[in-house]
Specification:
alpha+beta, two-stranded antiparallel sheet, 13% strand, globular
């Protein structure tokens, strides 16, 4: 990624119930990029009819989500999440199992995407990830979710 000046960081959002996966790339981890990612994601979900009023968005305690640990007020990320009537929760420090679903998706992405695909530009990385996400969300059946795709689960639950 560095050799080709591709974005090194992957922002991931995963719906725990359905397994729907959303990804964005950035050249740095920052509050600005986290806010941009959540804004784009929320706008996409709203445009597609999602009701986010009872949504809890859980993150780790990275500065890209909480800002400074000593901050006296909520971060720009938390403020953005709450501006859509959602709740931002952080996991307890070192409670990595609380992010198990997202970490599982990271392992799948490594195995099914990064080890297979080659890309020589940000454009191709984004295009190929877009195709991967279409496959992952609409066609890839999950054995641990009754052999259904995220789309099938989403339709049956909502």
């Amino acid at each position: 990624m560095r050799l080709l000046n591709l974005p090194e960081y992957q922002y991931t959002a995963r719906d725990v119930t359905s397994g729907f996966l959303f990804i964005s790339f950035a050249y740095e981890l920052s509050l600005r990029n986290s806010v941009s990612f959540v804004e784009q994601l929320v706008q996409h979900l709203i445009a597609n009819g999602a009701d986010l009023s009872n949504t809890v968005l859980q993150t780790d305690n990275g500065s890209e989500f909480i800002g400074s640990r000593n901050a006296k007020k909520d971060s720009a990320f938390t403020e953005k999440v709450e501006s859509y009537s959602m709740i931002h929760k952080t996991i307890p420090p070192k409670a990595h199992t609380w992010q198990a679903d997202t970490e599982t998706s990271h392992n799948l992405i490594e195995y099914e995407f990064y080890t297979i695909e080659a890309f020589n530009s940000t454009h191709y990385l984004q295009q190929k990830m877009g195709v991967y996400l279409l496959w992952f969300n609409f066609l890839r059946k999950n054995s641990y979710k009754e052999n259904q795709t995220p789309l099938q689960i989403w339709i049956s639950k909502f």
